[in-house]
Description:
42% strand, 24 strands
Amino acid sequence: MYTPKSLRILFLLTSILLSSSATAGPVYQPPGANLTFGDVTHGQRIQSASTNPAAAAADLTRGREARTRGVVSSASVGLEYGNIQDLWDFYDEITRGYEPSDPGTGGGPGQNPGDKPGGGIDLGEIWDRVDPDVQDAIRALSDELARQVAIGAIIRAEGYGKAWIAVDLPFVTGTEYFGGAWTFGLNYSGSSKAFGIVDQIEFDADAAREALNDWLAQLPGNRPIQLPVSSDLQLYHDPATNGFGLGINNDSSLIAKSTRTTELSTGYSRLAWSSESGNLFLGIRGHVYYKELSRISLRFGDITDSNELFDQIRNGDFRSDTRFGLDVGALWVANRYQLGIQVTNLNEPKFKFPGIDLNAYSAENIIEFLERDRTYKMDLQVKLEGSYFGRDRRWSAHIGVDADPATDPLGDEFQWLTLSAGFLADARWVQDIRFGYRENLAGSELKYLSAGLTAFRFLNFDVSSALDTVSIDGHKLPRGLMISLGFQVIW
């Protein structure tokens, strides 16, 4: 049974999105039944025509089946965590040893660096007497820095939490206009993410050894309480206990980003060439994106409550942009198989996050990252697909693959490989059953198993769960979980 703390961690991100939501043209997850099928023209239900821009005409031409015309509404939510137990507590713990920014240059929502306990990271086990052996001190100090470097590597790879939500409304009409099929769509979706970036700790063992020797050469009463051992590090001495603490002063930071977008799209497709072996369909789809983006960056030294920082991202300043996008696609359809290609974001529209006050920063690599991270470009991406159908088309198998990676507004790379299969049961209660496997070939490299069904002829339910697990408050949970619920009206 999950504890209240576990439930709060799991649903914090989703609640943020529900109150201020977020990203269109979902790079991360396709809507409705396509969560299981992937970006393929599966021919089952209307959302088959919302993938490849050429799919609508192909679906309508195939037998003129009435079930390929209509409208579908779907709502999807998802969570993904790095493999760090109690993520926010982890950040609060490791940032205690980082020095706050100079007054007036740092801080962030819900933070109070002035209340941060002094003394740095406890290094009492380094010295157990007034005059330690300098070599042992340096060795112990190096061990602690090695641990900090290892923690930095963990933060870069696993120190993130992410959530998203999407509402999708595709609409497919017939062939009344210009001899082709028209699609229209409305999408409102959003995502938020918190992640860490780590500034390398500079440490010169020789310089530290010299500083320690100078400190030890002074009379006990004259030894300073603070002892700089490098540009990034200083030791704190407590004369009452002879204890020492390690303070770290660099620009390692926690970043929280959020986007919210409304997307309007329209597409046209038609038969381009026909032969005895198959038919070639071509299509084009245009998008209008209205996107709002927000971003907060906070140095580790200014963090006192990382959970509160991410919770406050919904109150941040959002910068809005309106841009246009264009996709094209082609689909070859034979009797028992079909092959397709689509190219998304041909014009690669660009959007900008709000700027960040860089007065508290001095590390050039961090400043460069924060400036570069301000611009989001919707990458051009090539998607390939293939499907094979049974003799009566009651069952089908599909494969879809992104030929190259694309980056979402939160900076994550995605290159999906999907394998799926579907069966038309047409039973009284359940009409369609589908199963799928999806793997991100870039970025997180997570693998998901998916399953879905269509019940009562109008209800679509799909769920996708990551195979990797994360420990939260002592409970093993999937690192990623996506759920989609939709309704369809067909004619």
